[in-house]
Design goal:
The structure holds 2 protein chains of 2 kinds.
Chain A (H helix, E strand, L loop, with lengths): L1 H28 L2 E2 L6 E2 L7 H11 L3 H8 L1 H34 L5 H9 L6 H12 L4 H9 L12 H26 L2 H9 L4 H12 L1 H16 L3 H6 L7 H11 L3 H33 L1
Antiparallel strand pairs in A: 1-2
Helix pairs in contact in A: 1-14, 3-14, 4-8, 4-11, 8-11, 9-10, 11-14, 13-14
Chain B lengths: L17 E10 L2 E11 L4 E5 L6 H9 L6 E6 L2 E2 L10 E4 L11 H11 L4 H14 L15 H14 L4 E5 L7 H18 L2 E6 L2 H7 L2 E6 L2 E6 L1 H6 L4 H6 L4 E10 L2 E5 L7 E3 L10 E6 L5 E3 L8 E12 L3 E8 L4 E7 L14 E6 L5 E3 L2
Parallel strand pairs in B: 3-8, 3-9, 6-7, 7-8
Antiparallel strand pairs in B: 1-2, 1-4, 4-5, 9-10, 11-12, 11-14, 12-13, 14-20, 15-19, 16-17, 16-19, 17-18
Helix pairs in contact in B: 2-3, 2-4, 3-4
The chains are: A mainly alpha, B alpha+beta.
Chain lengths: 296, 374
């Protein structure tokens, strides 16, 4: 009985905070748009009893999902989101790994400070941080001023409202999610393994490729998923930094909801997005489980 | 004719494999190795023995190439090894933690060093098989390090470090993580493998029994210096200082003043007591302070004074350490001096001859005690 109570709690949590909202979104995605509050039909009216419920079910259909396939805006947005997320994840890895490596090899008394510096940005509002990037990247922004002053460029660079700005924003925002899991695997690594590799004939570089990288694989995979998964649905960064030229599904979703007020289509977009994300999420969970087993 | 004795250090024609020449290593203000000069010969099993912090690990890490001497040179086969990085040295090391690569199988761990040498696939496979057979690991080749026992892991580490057929193998506390029974079995296994491969082994250990069992020569270290480097038997029977005598095995040290008498010396250790005689070859002046080192197993314990022995003292049993096969008696003699005496328990414990507070006679032969200056 106690065991049941123990597992019942997380399941109740999942049910209330994930499954029920998802059920609502799914239901809306199967409805039709209407000029009403809420802006869709049918709505479930329990006062009419069983017959009312049957009518309600009959009114639901997959029309909105079919619609998503007819307009190429949607699949292009999905595809471009995946592409941007993949490239941004890769850049974050390239930037994050050396930082994590440096932290793990820093003297012990430096590590808490370095860790703090990585986490520090989280203490400010995410929105404000993205806004401040607008100030840095705009044509009259700090970056251009600095480059002009240094004489490296004669014309200000156009960075804001381009995909480059989106990548900068994503890499900046999600960098800690990449650094922390990699750092935690590197930090636990036994230093004598590298000495052993060297002793057996490796140069420093080959020892890094043959020992350090494989042993931090779980951290790399975890970090990549932690960046990739939220980036696909990212809305704030592309809409603030990317301008009209960047197509991402999060932005499409927002426009469907708030500009078109087409809740059913927006919900359908969200459901498909979730289905796309399920694959990397499952892979991520499997990686976590594997690394736990390897340690256990 | 018996076998020729393996004693290259006594042969002036023999060229040493490793030569330490005035080697000093400092870490900041701390001197880890203090101006050491000594040789290690080919096919030797050389043990560096000492308490933690005596510099034995630093010595080994300098041989492996992970530390460079502050002063002096280390020669390997007559060549200065200072400019050679660890990955280019014909020296391999077995780490105390074993340092097995957790993401690689036993087979791949052993093959790791061979692959770096760009050997052909067949040659690598053949060599790995050879190593697996040598260390009796063939059936575990496909397992990962976390899927095998501690003793097997130790053998993988040994096989991996031997695979490249190094001129010199360094073993850093190789049996530190094994339990007592397994350690004993492994010691003999290690000697066997050393003999089979003909590799020179340098072992670092703090376990004197281990060093005595496996090594051809033992170097006892203290605070960055080798106090004495000699065969286990000579280290035990002819220690050069009280530190060595005390570090190896059990010993009673009696301090007194020497006066020449016949072949040896008489040592006066207490006002009222008769002096102790030792016929030990040493040069001491009249009245010079000296130390007698007396091994407990060389002291007999009897109820009556033995007639035939010059060294016999009376005392009271203060403590008895029962070790099963042996008992060590702590006996207080004249002047409050404690002397340890060991006797085999030839009878059952309930029928033991002596017990606490008994007055007994301790005696030993003229040559049993070693005289030491410091």
């Amino acid at each position: 009985m106690r065991r049941f109570a123990l597992i019942a709690l997380p399941y109740a949590w999942l049910l209330a905070l994930f499954l029920v909202p998802f059920g609502i979104v799914l239901k809306i995605s199967l409805s039709d748009i209407a000029l009403a509050i809420p802006p869709y039909t049918p709505t479930l009216d329990l006062s009419e009893g069983w017959a009312g419920f049957k009518d309600f079910l009959a009114a639901l259909d997959f029309e909105n999902f079919t619609f998503l396939t007819t307009d190429d805006l949607y699949w292009k947005a999905y595809l471009s989101s995946l592409q941007i997320a993949a490239l941004a994840t890769f850049i974050t890895l390239i930037v994050g790994y050396p930082i994590a490596y440096g932290m793990a090899n820093a003297p012990d008394h430096w590590r808490p400070t370095l860790m703090m510096l990585v986490i520090l940005p989280f203490w400010t509002s995410f929105l404000i941080r993205v806004y401040s990037w607008m100030g840095i990247l705009s044509t009259e922004g700090y970056l251009n001023q600095l480059l002009l002053w240094a004489g490296l460029i004669s014309e200000p660079l156009v960075i804001l409202n381009t995909p480059t700005a989106v990548y900068i924003g994503i890499v900046y925002t999600y960098l800690p999610f990449m650094i922390l899991p990699i750092y935690s695997t590197l930090e636990r690594m036994d230093g004598s393994l590298l000495e052993a590799a060297e002793d057996l004939g490796c140069s420093r570089l080959t020892a890094f490729w043959l020992v350090t990288v494989p042993l931090s694989k779980n951290g790399i995979v975890a970090g990549c998923f932690l960046v990739f998964i939220p980036t696909i649905g990212e809305f704030v960064i592309p809409s603030l930094l990317g301008g009209s030229r960047t197509l991402m599904i999060g932005k499409v979703l927002w426009e469907e909801f708030f500009n078109n007020r087409d809740w059913p289509v927006a919900s359908a977009v969200a459901v498909v997005l979730l289905l796309i994300l399920i694959i990397p999420i499952i892979l991520f969970q499997r990686n976590e489980q594997k690394s736990r087993e390897a340690e256990g | 004719m018996g076998q020729t004795v393996f004693e290259p250090w006594n042969d002036p024609d023999e060229k040493p494999l490793i030569q330490f020449k005035n080697v000093t290593k400092r870490f900041g203000d701390f001197t880890a190795i203090d101006n050491q000069t000594f040789d290690i010969y080919e096919k030797e099993f050389f043990a560096l023995l000492g308490p933690s912090g005596c510099g034995k690990t630093t010595m080994m890490r300098m041989l492996a190439g992970f530390e460079a001497p502050t002063e002096g040179t280390i020669l390997l086969g007559g060549q200065d090894i200072a400019p050679i990085p660890p990955n280019k040295r014909a020296v391999n090391m077995m780490f105390q933690s074993y340092a097995l690569f957790p993401h690689l199988s036993v087979w791949d761990n052993i093959a790791f060093g061979l692959k770096r040498d760009r050997m052909s696939k067949d040659a690598i496979a053949a060599r790995v098989e050879e190593m697996l057979t040598l260390t009796r690991l063939t059936q575990f080749a496909r397992r990962k390090p976390h899927q095998i026992s501690g003793g097997q892991r130790q053998r993988v580490a040994l096989a991996r470090s031997l695979a490249k057929a190094p001129k010199l193998l360094l073993l850093d506390e190789p049996m530190g993580a094994l339990d007592a029974k397994l350690r004993q079995a492994t010691q003999f296994e290690l000697m066997d493998i050393q003999e089979k491969t003909g590799t020179t082994f340098v072992i670092v250990t703090h376990d004197q029994e281990e060093a005595m069992t496996v090594a051809s020569r033992v170097a006892v270290m203290d605070e960055g210096r080798i106090v004495q480097a000699d065969t286990p038997a000579r280290i035990y029977e002819n220690p050069s200082t009280t530190y060595v005598a005390d570090f190896i095995g059990d010993v009673t040290i009696i301090t007194g003043r020497a006066s020449p008498a016949g072949e040896g010396y008489e040592v006066h250790y207490a006002e009222a007591a008769a002096p102790i005689y030792s016929a030990f070859d040493i040069d001491l002046a009249e009245g010079e302070t000296c130390h007698l080192a007396l091994r407990p197993e060389k002291v007999s314990i009897t109820a009556e004074r033995p007639a035939d022995r010059r060294n016999a003292v009376q005392g009271t049993i203060i403590d008895i350490a029962y070790l099963g096969n042996l008992s060590t008696y702590h006996v207080e003699i004249e002047g409050g001096q404690m002397v340890k005496a060991q006797a085999a328990n030839t009878r059952r414990l309930s029928r033991r001859d002596f017990t606490w507070e008994d007055t007994v006679w301790l005696s030993w032969t003229d040559t049993a005690a070693v005289l030491l200056r410091e």
